[in-house]
Amino acid sequence: MTIDTDFEKVFPITERTYIGLAGLATDVKTLHDRLRMRVNLYKHREERVIEPNTFANLVSHMLYEHRFGSYFVQPVIAGLNKNDQPFICSMDTIGCIDLGGNFIVSGTAAENLYGTCESLWEPDLEPEELFETISQALLNAVDRDAMSGWGAVVRIITPSGIITRDLKSRMD
Questions:
Q1: DSSP tag of 50
Q2: pLDDT tens for each residue of 84-140
Q3: Burial of residue 126, with CB atoms counted within 10 A of its CB: 0-12 exposed, 13-18 middle, 19 or more buried
Q4: Torsion-angle region of 63 (φ positive above 0: left; ψ -120 to 50: alpha; else: beta)
């Protein structure tokens, strides 16, 4: 029985940095609240906005602090640094950073996403082309995974702003 399908798993950290947290809902909520507090402390202490790579190290450190009673989450961090260079990484439950390079996958359909992303991704895509590539990869991977579905939200981070669109997929 499906109770709810609109639990938020992707959160803005700054105007140009987002974190996605796949995993146990209570740990997603707890970790997001603690990250928001730590980012605010960083902003007040350093008097500047946290960069994506610095934020990734902060998340990694927090997860490693709880390695013996870990949060059941797989974070994905994406953003643009101050020079408009893209940054993307993921982590395991104890904070080991994976700087995947071209793309990062996480969640229940991760194994299926690797194949579709490898076949569809190309370098230097424009935002509309990137949206189409992400959409096709997500929909194809979700169709092959019985535990996934109910749509997705695609967010594309550009220097001029965030593009957000909803995807509809199977609902069985």
A1: P
A2: 999 999 999 999 999 977 888 887 777 778 888 888 888 889 999 999 998 888 888
A3: exposed
A4: alpha
- In a 3-state reduction of DSSP, which class is residue 148? coil
* CA 96 – CA 117 distance, rounded (Å): 22
Q: What is the CA radius of gyration of the chain?
A: 16
Cβ(71)–Cβ(30) under 8 Å? yes
Please, what's the largest Cα pairwise distance for the chain? 48
What's the angle, vertex CA 107, arms to CA 111 and CA 38, rounded to 5? 140
If you search the block for the tokens 């990694």, which residue do you land on? 60
Torsions phi, psi for 150 (to 5 deg): 70, 20
Would you report the helix, strand and coil content of the chain in percent, each value rounded to 5?
40, 25, 35
pTM listed for this prediction: 0.88
- Residues contacting 49, CB < 8 A, separation 6+: 14, 15, 43
State whether the Cα torsion 108-144-162-101 is positive or negative.
positive
Which sign, positive or negative, has the C-alpha torsion 124, 96, 118, 155? negative
Quick one: tokens of 95? 């904070």
